[in-house]
Write a structure and sequence with these properties.
The complex is a heterodimer. By secondary structure, chain A is mainly alpha-helical. Chain A has a single domain, classed as Sodium/glucose cotransporter (Up-down Bundle). Chain A is built from 22 helices and no strands. The two termini of chain A are 32 Å apart. Chain B is mainly α. Chain B has a domain of 74 residues. Chain B contains 5 helices and no strands. The longest helix of chain B is centred in the middle third of the chain and has 22 residues. The chains are: A mainly alpha, B mainly alpha. At the A-B interface, helix 2, helix 10, helix 16 and helix 17 of A face helix 1, helix 2, helix 3, helix 4 and helix 5 of B.
């Protein structure tokens, strides 16, 4: 479900989650009890929250009442699904430390940018979804294209998450794939039906702490057995020049498969990660549910701190697994995707293993729930209310939201069965993202920063950008264009799409009168609307700018640390 | 904000439950339970358990950390209890209930 995670699974080659012969977890009674208790809590939260869901805003945006620490953790957790945890540790095991680029330049700067620059436009204009912003900034066709793409992408990705979850259940616990798909889907369905977005967010926050309690012991053991990060790098120095150094081989003529610095900075960071983190409604919805303007701005910035530290819990154990799990990634051995579950199984004692597995299962379900809860908001508000049945009372849309949740989950189940037939889920997901995410980000950034961008220009930017990115990919597949790796292709395709889409927006603006300023209130730079109480100066520890700078500084220090260790 | 809100007994009960089930109480309760259940085998850890975890009594350490975390979350709820129902909240839910009739939203 993440731009980063999906691409790295591609990078990790064949991401077949199904083949995990030889890894069946040995759970004790206590481990099972812990899992059952956790899921009882999840349903309990849904039941408790059901009492306070009275309006559609409660259901879709948690009544805009949540504090920043809750929305911030939910923001990071919505991304911490199956594909992220298994895929990024797999990439760590296969490609080494350079995978940290996906966090320190491929995520954190985008999150800081969202909080500092973009969030006032989203929150202050009181839009209820990301596509709704495009409706007010551009026109109906821009809106409709974005809403439809989002709705399609999110049910498909919910399905892929569901498939990944079920494949892991099958591999680790021996539950048949079809049963696992249906049971996990019904579980997610029941808690979102009951508590709406609040239920999803509450679970994301609980899950975050549980997954930490599962990952930290793995890191402790991996560090003890390999002699710390320095010892780990020294022991892995035989694995090639790029494995333990993040920047080696990233020059323009270099050979590091991660890409070159131009495509990393402009393609991965500016186009792909800004596109994902700042316009993906599954993420932005969490910030929109914050209680005030400042809490909304702090949401992605609070999330940036754990995001900067997560590679220590995912990429580093993945690398350590190369030493600790014999045969990992070799023919006949365990697949790279199972690096972390294999470490857990080998080293965690009874009880701790139960907590760790609970964290994994919860993370996988949260990933799917995030897709479903953003899908139903966009479907209900942006498609049903705007184009199909406008002007009904709020209670009607609340009901539509609940029905949509059911339908969305069932489409997700179908998609999961389709994904089970694919050998490479990654391509399937990555293709979606590289084609649509970047041009959508283009329409946002130009729309926010350039008042004169014409009414129809957003539509043309999105269409041309997506087509050019798609064309680049086709030419690469046909061996007309060549890049150093699939990953580098994605980054360059994003850059080409962005530039072409931008030119299309400029041309479209020439033929189009700009929108009058009266219609752009709250939507463009210089016309932001801020809540009165939050326009007051805040203390430094609540200042998005200060904290955002702190997050960037943390990334710089982490780069420095892995370079000298 | 500080307006006195008049609630029917049923509304009052719903809101009390909703506010009691603050996210922090859920996390606190979960981690206290997890902490206790994981610490117990840690206290009686066999040599095999410790050897498996590279010589560290992980169950004891992780169990105690979770227990402390749970207690901290519960203490946080007690020290900073959730704010009382505001007039707007009560009004919004009442309006919605009237729209749905006496039955409440579907599923109730």
């Amino acid at each position: 479900m993440t731009s980063a995670g999906t691409m790295t699974i591609t990078l990790a080659g064949t991401a077949r989650v199904e083949a995990a012969a030889g890894l069946r977890l040995s759970l004790s009674g206590l481990d099972v009890v812990l899992i059952v208790i956790y899921f009882a809590f999840v349903l309990g939260i849904g039941l408790a929250l059901r009492r306070v869901i009275a309006t559609s805003t409660d259901f879709f945006l948690s009544g805009r009442s949540l504090p920043a620490w809750v929305t911030g953790i939910a923001y990071i957790s919505a991304n911490l699904g199956a594909i992220e945890i298994l895929g990024m540790s797999a990439s760590g095991a296969q490609y080494g430390i350079s995978i940290v680029h996906y966090y320190w330049i491929g995520a954190v700067p985008a999150m800081v940018f969202l909080g500092v620059v973009m969030m006032p436009f989203y929150y202050g204009s009181r839009v209820r979804s990301v596509p709704e912003y495009l409706l007010r900034r551009y026109d109906r066709k821009t809106h409709l294209v974005n809403a439809i793409i989002f709705v399609l992408a999110s049910v498909l990705i919910a399905g892929v998450n569901l498939y990944a979850l079920s494949a892991v259940l099958e591999a680790l616990l021996g539950i048949p794939l079809a049963v696992a798909i249906v049971v996990s889907a019904l579980f997610v369905l029941s808690y979102i039906m009951l508590g709406g977005l609040s239920s999803a967010i509450y679970n994301e926050v609980m899950q975050f702490f549980v997954i930490l309690a599962g990952l930290i012991p793995v890191v402790i053991i991996a560090m003890k057995l390999t002699g710390g990060i320095g010892g780990l790098f020294a022991k892995l120095s035989t694995s090639g020049p790029y494995f333990t150094s993040a920047w080696t081989g990233t020059g323009l003529g270099g050979h590091s498969p991660i890409g070159d610095w131009v495509s990393l900075v402009f393609g991965l960071s500016f186009c792909l990660s800004f596109g994902y983190w700042t316009t993906n409604f599954a993420e932005v919805q969490r910030a929109m549910s914050a209680k005030d303007d400042n809490a909304a701005r702090l949401t992605p910035i609070i999330a940036a701190f754990p995001k900067a530290l997560i590679p220590l819990g995912i990429v580093i154990p993945g690398m350590a697994a190369v030493l600790l799990i014999p045969g990992l990634g070799e023919g006949g051995g365990l697949e790279y995707n199972y690096a972390i579950p294999a470490l857990m199984n080998k080293y965690l004692p009874t009880g701790v293993l139960g907590v760790a597995l609970t964290g994994l299962l919860a993370a996988f379900m949260a990933g799917m729930a995030a897709n479903v809860s953003s899908f139903n908001a966009v479907w209900t508000y942006d498609i049903w209310q705007d184009y199909i049945r406008p002007g009904r009372p709020d209670s009607y849309y609340l009901r539509v939201g609940r029905v949509t949740t059911v339908v969305g989950v069932f489409i997700g189940i179908l998609t999961a069965f389709i994904a089970a037939g694919y050998t490479n889920i990654a391509n399937y997901l990555q293709t979606l993202f590289s084609f649509f995410n970047v041009p959508i980000f283009l329409a946002f950034i130009v729309g926010m920063l350039w008042r004169k961008a014409g009414r129809g220009s957003g539509f043309w930017g999105m269409v041309v950008g997506a087509l050019v990115a798609f064309g680049t990919w086709l030419l690469y597949q046909a061996h007309v264009l060549s890049f150093r790796s699939d990953l580098a292709e994605t980054q360059w395709g994003a850059i080409f799409g962005f530039v072409a889409g931008f030119v299309a927006m400029l041309i479209a603006t020439l033929f189009d009168k700009p929108k009058p300023l009266s219609e752009l209130n709250g939507l463009v730079v210089g016309l932001q609307q801020r809540d009165v109480q939050t326009a007051a100066p805040v203390r430094w520890y609540r200042s998005p700018v200060v904290l955002g700078f702190g997050a960037l500084l943390l990334c710089a220090l982490l780069y420095l640390y892995i370079a000298v260790v | 904000m500080a307006d006195k809100v008049e609630l029917t007994p049923e509304e009052a009960r719903n809101w009390r439950l909703a506010k009691l089930f603050d996210l922090r109480s859920f996390i606190g309760a979960l981690f206290v339970v997890f902490g206790i259940l994981v610490t117990i085998p840690g206290l009686a850890a066999s040599k095999a358990m410790i050897d498996k975890a590279a010589g560290i009594n992980l169950a004891l350490w992780i169990g105690l950390i979770m227990l402390i975390m749970g207690v901290l979350f519960l203490a946080w709820v007690l020290l900073r209890p959730p704010p009382p129902v505001t007039a707007e909240e009560a009004e919004a839910s009442r309006r919605a209930r009237e729209e749905f009739g006496t039955q409440g939203p579907p599923g109730h």
